[in-house]
Amino acid sequence: MSARSAMLLFGSAAAVALTGMSQVVAQTNQVGAATSSGMEEIVVTARRANERIQTVPIAITAFSQADLEKKQIHDISDLAREVPSLNVSLSQSDTNAGYAAGATLRGLPGTVVYFNDVPIGSTDYSQLNGILHSFSPGFLYDLDHLEVDKGPQGTLFGKNSIGGLIAYQSQRPTNTFEGYVQATFGDYGDREFEGAANIPIVQDKLAVRIAGQSQQRDGYTTDLQTGKDLDNRNYYSWRISVKLTPSDDFQDVFVYDGYWQDTNGSSNIARYVNPDLDLGGITVGQIYPNLSALLAQQQRNGARLTNGPSIPLIGKDYFYGLTNITTWDISENLTLKNIAAARVFKQLFAIDDSNVGLPLLTIGGPTNNTGWDDNSVQYTEEIQLQGKALGDKLSWVLGGFLEFDHPLGALNGEPTQYFGTVAYYYFHNSARSQAAFVHGIYDLSDYVDGLRFTGGYRYTWDYLSVQQSGTGGVNTIIRDPAGNPLNCSSPANYDRNCTNATNAHYSSFGWNVGLDDQITHDTLVYVRAGNAYRPGGVNSTLPAEFQQFKPEHVTDVELGVKSDWQLLDGHVRTNADIFHTDYKSIQVSQLVPVSTSSGPTVESATLNAASASLYGAEFEMTWTPLKSIEISPHASYIFAQYEKYPAEFGGTDSSKPPFGVPKWQYGVTGTYYLPVDEAWGTIAASLAYSWKGHQYVTFSPGEPANIIASSENLDLRVDWTNMFGQPLDLGAFVSNLTDNTHITGITALYTSIGFTSATYNAPRMFGFSLKYRFGGQDQPEEAQATYTAPPVVAPAPTVPKSYLVFFDFNRSDLSSRAAIIVDEAAKNATSTNVSKLEVTGHTDTVGSDAYNMRLSRRRAEAVAARLEQDGIAASEIEIVAKGKRDLLIPTADGVREPQNRRVQILYSGAANS
Predict the structure, then answer these.
(1) 531 and 514 in contact (C-beta within 8 Å)?
(2) Which residue, of 139, 552, 745, 913, has the fewest CB within 10 Å?
(3) 875 with 781: CB under 8 angstroms?
(4) CA Rg, the chain, in Å?
(5) Where are the extended beta strands (E) located within 521-628?
(6) Which positions of the chain have pLDDT values less than 70?
(7) What is the DSSP code (8-state) at residue 911?
(8) Which pLDDT belongs to residue 470?
(9) What is the pLDDT of residues 91-149, one digit of tens each?
(10) Which backbone phi and psi does 474 adopt, to 5 degrees?
(11) What pLDDT sits at residue 417?
């Protein structure tokens, strides 16, 4: 299905929905939302504070748990379809690709993944388990929200990153008993179970939340040799969270989470072989005379059948983590926050990079199917001191970060086969990263209403220790620190003195500056610039001139606007930005020639090969032309060009785009709420389309497949929530509706080892889910009292008896619109001789009770001060503060309480109007 036909299909469906509807049941919008659009607000933590996404001067894409389900986002590769400029490579072994397989944002690698404020492993060369962890399914359940922050990050918190970060925030325990259970069934034998229970132990003091998810599903690729199904799923994931609040100014949240996966491994389908490749006097075809015949058979098999791996494939992971977040409100303007965590990563894998039926290149195998190939632990510690100064105009954060990664217990000797010759690697790598940072936001509203200045600075120190042992074999060399080959013995007589140990140290500064202006209550414009670095690393098996590579450096400038507005009587939200990035000392994986006792060969190396400039734009929109229709398009454009790319590193044309950077990505999700009786609940149908342009994977001359072609995807989902007024939700879904087949990653080894293979997307799948919710605030509304008409009297001037003044998240200053409302309230109070005004401040549930009470009082005091300026005597104003225990309006799941971020002005003796 082409992009054009899909867009026509979607447009036709929307036209039918617009013209064929005689009755409409509105999508529920929260009354009195902080934005005039009434759209859902997601509170994000991009600046390590809870802020409404539309007020944060950073390009952010965020999803509630409901969004993730509606858009069928189950892992990070699904996420890439919905986030502008996020790209994911899924090839198993991208030896000659520009970047290690992983996630890139705005064309930049090194994307850091956070779970509950803790970076998950390292996405740098010392350790890849962080990004592998985030690829796995089983983490996108029972979340408060998920956010993708773009551009250099690090002057505010955590780990340094050059392209951006992906942050998962799980639901934290609350003081309400509630939860849910959900079962999902589908084709390919899919069975999924999920649930959560929130249990208050001591009201307002101690609460526990337990959640979990599991999935068992057959694979969609068949191994013809054994009959096993590859690409299957079999995992269990769990979380236990405990929140302790011994006093109003102190809170401690502890989270234990874990994940277990045991699968048959994933498929890699051979596409090209080179039987004439010379391997030092003998060709690949001479070693394997039936190679060409096996490839021809594989091509006849297609993408869903494989000749079979030459070794039994294994995909086994065991991850778990302990996280403790402590928050202490030392005073009204000073908060201490500490984030401590330990995460363990255990992986056992066996990979065949061709699956053609011959051991052209395999990692792992039957000799190491017990124990762990990766068995490591990561410790992180982050401390922050947050405060306000200069009359609350300056908000500042001062902090430090430490991460230490090292092996945990014994590791397997990892067997690697090159054309049937087995060699062994033993690794013992450690890494430490430490940083200090400071960040501030200064309110310049005294000079220009709504204007703020942001500035931050960071300095990072990275230390790396790489120790590698091994046995000799084709393409396998262990060298001493001077780069000289060591005399390694056979596996039977393994000599542990055959070891290379290399240490490296890198450090650099980072900074961030910006200006943002809240032009109106619903429009934010901003400009920001940032600088960050990605540390270097070690090629431990290569000669001295190739053993270390240097850090990368990025300088980024971004201009953006976030706005809520009206179009054809419908609400519209548009977030857009343009950016420019200078990218220096790019780390590129290349094949370099080396000498061995068996003759000349090539080894994979990471080298600093190039510099580049990237220009781009990102756009996201949500439009509700009718209350029953929501349309959400998104798009990104990146023009990336090398400024230099030396010929000795595989390329001569600097105009070629960097690897793994599609120029265009776009998509649209349309949701239609069916016109059914409210007593039936709400029925919504969502259609999500996405398209991604082609991307380069190599410039090596002679590679027959150096580009991943463009691809598209279409998903359909129907949700029936609150079935017949009960806490039951029924969902039905179809992923990859058109059942297209496309390449998601390429292993380009044709010129070095004699083959090129590819990984493919999943086929069409369908299923349904049933969810039951219990506890919580789902109580029937009280019946309204019978209305009795008052006696007829002469009409009197209509004067409002109460006013609502709304505030931005975590703010107590009056916006220009709020000031107008307060002035109107004062004017009417004076003209009608009102003798008393009750001014009541409210907040939402984020933060401690003590903080919320102080915030609600500051809001009430700000309104009272304005009333006094308007001529109302202080003696006629009564100030009342209410915190999160005194919410007046309950809100829906997944939505914060913007309607409670307000001050209510009530005339003496007047009814609420």
Answers:
(1) no
(2) 913
(3) no
(4) 30
(5) 523-534, 537-538, 548-549, 552-567, 570-596, 599-626
(6) 1-40, 90-102, 121-136, 365-370, 410-414, 423-426, 469-500, 541, 590-603, 646-655, 777-800, 809-810, 832-837, 839-851, 883-900, 908-913
(7) P
(8) 64
(9) 433 332 222 346 889 999 878 889 999 998 653 433 343 344 445 688 899 999 999 99
(10) -60, 130
(11) 77
**Residue 414 has what pLDDT?**
67
For the chain, the first-to-last Cα distance in angstroms comes to 54
Q: Write the single-letter amino acid at 611.
A: S
DSSP state of 544: G
Tokens of 640: 């990336």
- Secondary structure element (H or E) that encloses residue 614, with its range: strand 599-626
> What's residue 24's pLDDT?
29
Q: Which residues share a beta bridge with 324?
A: 254, 340
415-459 pLDDT, tens digit each: 777 777 776 666 778 899 999 999 999 999 889 988 999 999 999
The strand pairing partners of 755, in sequence order, are: 273, 749
How far apart CA 298 and CA 55 sit, in angstroms, is 54
**Which pairs with CB-CB distance under 8 Å and at least 24 residues apart come from 889-893?**
889/31, 889/32, 890/777, 891/30, 892/28, 892/30, 893/65, 893/66, 893/776
Query: Which token pair is 522?
Result: 């619903």
Q: Which amino acid belongs to residue 729?
A: D
Could you give phi then psi for residue 703, rounded to 5 degrees? Answer: -75, 120
Query: Helix, strand, coil % (nearest 5) of the chain?
Result: 15, 50, 40
Taken as a whole, the chain contains a residue count of: 913
What token pair was written down for 480?
A: 């001493």
Supply the pLDDT for residue 531.
Answer: 94
| pLDDT for residue 1 | 40
The residues pairing with 199 across neighbouring beta strands, listed in sequence order, are: 208
For residue range 792-837, list pLDDT tens digits in order: 444 444 445 778 888 876 677 787 778 888 888 888 877 766 656 6
816-831 and 849-869 helices, crossing angle to 10°: 60
Tokens representing 125 are: 């060369």
| 3-state class (DSSP) for residue 47 | coil
pLDDT at 350: 85
Note the pLDDT of residue 351.
86
23 exposed, middle or buried (CB, 10 Å; 0-12, 13-18, 19+)? Answer: exposed
Q: What is the pLDDT of residue 284?
A: 86
CA distances from residue 143 to 68, 168, 171, 408, 724 in whole angstroms, order as listed? 9, 7, 5, 30, 26
- 845 touches 887 (CB < 8 A): yes
Other C-beta atoms closer than 10 Å to the C-beta of 294 total 18
What does residue 854 show for φ and ψ, rounded to 5 degrees?
Answer: -65, -40
pTM, two decimal places = 0.81
Q: Do residues 720 and 729 make contact, with C-beta atoms less than 8 angstroms apart?
A: yes
Sheet containing 902-907: which strands, arranged edge to edge? 802-806, 902-907, 837-841, 877-881
Q: Look at residue 835 in the predicted model and tell me its pLDDT.
A: 59
In the 3-class helix/strand/coil scheme, how is 91-133 assigned residue by residue?
CCCCCCCCCCCCEEECCECCCEEEECCEECCCCCCCCCHHHHH
The closest of 903, 699, 156 to 456, measured between CA atoms, is 156
Query: Mapping DSSP to helix (H, G, I), strand (E, B) and coil, where does residue 284 land?
Result: helix
> Are 50 and 847 within 8 A, CB to CB?
yes
Q: Using CA atoms, how far apart are residues 609 and 604, in angstroms rounded to an integer? A: 14
* Contacting residues for 82 by C-beta, under 8 A, at least 6 apart: 61, 63, 71, 73, 634, 667, 669, 688, 690
**Angle made by CA atoms 775, 776, 777, in degrees to the nearest 5:** 125
Residue in this structure with the two tokens 């370099």, named with its chain if needed: 592
Res 874: pLDDT: 77
Q: Which two tokens stand for residue 648?
A: 């000795």
State how far the alpha carbon of 607 is from the alpha carbons of 98, 282, 465, 648, in Å: 10, 30, 18, 11
Report which of 442, 228, 475 is spatially closest to residue 355, judged by C-alpha positions: 228
All structural domains of the chain: 3-775 (2.40.170.20), 802-907 (3.30.1330.60)
Mean of per-residue pLDDT scores for the chain: 80
Q: Name the one residue in this structure whose structure tokens are 């929140």.
A: 243
